[in-house]
Task: structure prediction
Amino acid sequence: MFRWKDVVAASRFFSKMWSIYRFSVSHFDDLDTSYVPEAEELHIVDRWLLDKLHELITTATANMDAYQFDEAFKAIRGFAWDVVADNYIELVKSRLYGTNATDRKAAQYALYVTIEALAKLLAPFAPFFAEEMYSRLGTGSVHMRSWPKADASWKDEEAGKAGELVKEIVSSVRRYKSEHGIALNAPLKKLEIYGALTDVIDITGATNTPVEMMAGNPDFEHVPVNIKPNMGVIGPKFKGQAKAIIDALSEANPKKLVNEMEQNGMISLHTKSGIIELGPESVEVEKEAISAGRAVDVLDVRGIPVVIIR
Result:
């Protein structure tokens, strides 16, 4: 059944796919396509990508065998857009543009294998597009090549989980930068990550920030830095006294007020209107994390603390 929105969606996808392809082939000029790196030469996100590629080929093959062509194409489109474009390429750009030959070759290899597989997977759906892709990757026609096979060596559940963690840490740091008005390519002073990750090269590259893996559990002191009035409570309850309460809170020492609340269950606030008692529901306490005498921000990524030092 013909729908214009499907035409528009397909147009957007193939524009995106062409961008992925053009970026990728620009890094294949010096690639030896016969080169296969040793497992230890591949980084976590390389193995994560290959694990995802194994999953894609397995799923798409099963869908094609079952004549579920729409499901096969959906899987290909989701992989190309979400895994390759939005994550893998962004994570490995620093290696692709870097000077370390071994690290660069690992990223080139994983990307080449992926793009070649995508050209073959797309061939039944977009024959001319796939032929153009393959013309710069291999010899002959893509339509004379075999359907891609999921290499058993690509399946790596451990790397799959670790790669997801790397992806989420980088996404969280970028979100933090955006929320704090920091340019995405601007460096932070340092990231301290508590967890079992052993390979952080792509976190360093994607965040443009030095990364240190920390053992044990972080020790933070949470210091009150501001107490804000909860106007949803103060407004209806105190009405005309609300402004006096706001002024008094802004002038008070947050630490003393929190200590008083913890001891007495409420705050006795001295205002121009006299002493007003506020319960915990009337205020919101903002706290700052202190680690080793430094003010830090802490992100929780899958239960793993990521300490940001600015």
Notes: DSSP finds ten helices and eight strands in the chain.
